[in-house]
Amino acid sequence: MVPKRTEGNLPLELSSFVGRRHELAEARRLMTQTRMLTLTGAGGVGKTRLALRLAADARRAFRDGVWLVDLAPLHDAESLAPAVVDALGFRDESPRRPDSGLAELLESRQLLLVLDNCEHMPLPVAVLAGKLLGAAPELRILATSRETLGVEGECVFTVPPLTLPLPGQSADLSEAVTLFAERAAAVQPGFTLGDDGERVAELCRRLDGLPLAIELAAARLRVLPVAEILDRMDDRFRLLADRRQTAVPRHRTLRAAIDWSYDLCEPAERVLWARLSVFPGEFGLESAEQVCSSDEIAPDEVFDLLGGLLDKSILTRTERAGRARYRLLDNIREYGRDILAGSGEEPALRRRHRDHYLSLARRARQEWFGPDQAEWVTRLQCDQDGIRAALEFSLGEPGEAPAALEIVSSLWNYWLFTAGSFGEGRRRLARALELAPEATPIRADALWVAAWFALRQGDVDAAKPLLSESRDLAQRLDLPAALASVTHFSGLAAHLGGEHQEALALLTEARERYLAASDQAGVWMTLFHLVIVYSASGDTDQAAAYAAECLAMCEGRSAYLSRSNALWVAGLAHWFQGAQDQAAALVKKGLDVMRRHDDRWGVAESLEVLAWIEAAHGREERAATLFGAACATWRSIGTATPGLRSFTDFHNLCETRVRDALGGDAYLSAFRRGAGLSLDEAVDHALDVDRSPPAQRRRPSVLTPREQEVAELVAQGLSNKEIAARLVIAQRTAEGHVEHIMTKLSLSSRVQVATWFTTHGRSHSRNPPGR
């Protein structure tokens, strides 16, 4: 073989290169640590473009040039080595095998070989790459593939979609919107985002931030305005097509790009891909096994098939609370749905999907008041999209509404604990009650749950008829458990209506009924409400006794979220007794747990009581700040009034005293300062967090490099959403990193993480995150 030229053969860029600062920096770092770097990712994510920019930037480091080999046109292993020979500009005039001659010729050369589009022949590429790397010590290979290649020593970098705008962030700050705007200006000179900024941002979100899809959408501006493109996204595969003859065939339409990935899959992987499209968001292994297995795919085969789809960049994987979570990008999911619809399996799959989440809801209800309570909150938060889809199926299919009744009523604790979900739970339950009027045990339960939702929002008038119907059904159908709950919440309704003695009688009766039914969760909640009613009626000793019993029940079952609320109600009882310091200590003890699990009802109630305590101590400015923080927390979950509706008089009395002591302007200033705090900042302020580093710390080396990056961004004041955008990871992945950091360092707040990083972390952060 004789070389013809040495400078390389990289093509010139014909359009602007947008974003990718973090990916370029990370890939460059990896290229210094490995001789074989493979860029993987979904079709259309921009692997080739990123590889070409990396290669161009590295050109000066390779004496013998940087060479691109496009493998997409190849169809068999025999053509692979000759294609590399041709791309390198060598003339093969020997009788040797092309791969042997190529290895010998590269032996003394220092060059970068870019192997593009390797996914359709991973084994031949892996064999050739291994042989060349073994023969040529100064050779480096940069590959792009939708599937990992499995070369010894290979380092894999997954190319993520472009960054998308965060809520409240200017649309043009994201890479995806910037790309759309630049490509739109090329087809429609003078194009600016203007009033279309939010529409473009939504379009980019629906396109998953995939560069190919965004460029195809921008090209349609020749025919349609942004608003119409967005309206037609339900038919995205027909809409997004490139009419240019110069476009690579597999990139001329969004469907063609995904067809290429589909063709690479084994038959069983294709079946699983279609079935997984029934999940609207992320899902776990257990869910995939139960929903997608059948005679064709056994449950124990799902794990390996998921691995195959991950390797081919069909699935993305994140981790939440130590568990793997999987997701199909929206475009890939839509493609799978088309396949599923054509298979005839869709109705059965959707019912199986619903039944899975119905079973999950039943388990959650049974296991809620126990040691797995916090894990259940995390699990249900992760599965929120699946739960919603199950409800939508049940509410949209004739005769299926009873399942919706059971799902919502089984998860009533979840709806109450999870920020932003309470109103949704109430609305969905009301709809299900309309669609399933039959007198059944499920309806009897759903009615008292609906009443509890109404009472939680202070709507006593709406709760009373629901409780009345539930009581009638429970008595007629002989349902002692439902009757206990009806009695319980009838007592709470009486209390909210000012009938304290009737409330005490009903709550005491409910407690006895729960005990007879061996319903420990019901006993606990009745004790919780008895503390509130006895406190409000002036019997503070009885309130304190029940508070101690309420707290002991949680301690015995390790029900940590219930315990945080029991600590709050115990603090409330002590406040009514005048024991301010003990009250503050109890409330603060539960507050951080509430914050960790986003229990905003509990956080707001805690901030409210702590404001009362500060006022009692004469610290009016601090009390006003806490009132502002409590008000902002209530508004974040859809209400502008304190949740302690039965204690409105105490709130008003305390607020008036604080306002009079400070004066109107000073009060308003402190209130606004509190209202402007984030949830974390408000809790830290309430806890009076000591920002100095604790006396003892674990060594900084316990954090992984990624956790070091996340810690630095926390120290910079970024939220989990902002960290996710900066590092181009899922928000839930960012949340998991923050949780791991706090666990490893024995910390309890983001402020402490920031303090730790400032003191210990900077010397260990080698690379600026996101740059």
From TrEMBL:
InterPro entries: AAA_22 (IPR049945), HTH_77 (IPR058852), P-loop_NTPase (IPR027417), Sig_transdc_resp-reg_C-effctor (IPR016032), TPR-like_helical_dom_sf (IPR011990), Tscrpt_reg_LuxR_C (IPR000792), WH-like_DNA-bd_sf (IPR036388)
GO molecular function: ATP hydrolysis activity; DNA binding
Domain HTH luxR-type: 696-761
SMART domains xref list: HTH_LUXR
PROSITE patterns xrefs: HTH_LUXR_2 (PS50043)
Top-level taxon of origin: Bacteria
GO BP annotations, alphabetical order: regulation of DNA-templated transcription
One of the Pfam families matching this protein, by short name: AAA_22
PANTHER family: HTH-TYPE TRANSCRIPTIONAL REGULATOR RV0890C-RELATED, REGULATOR-RELATED
Record's protein name: LuxR family transcriptional regulator
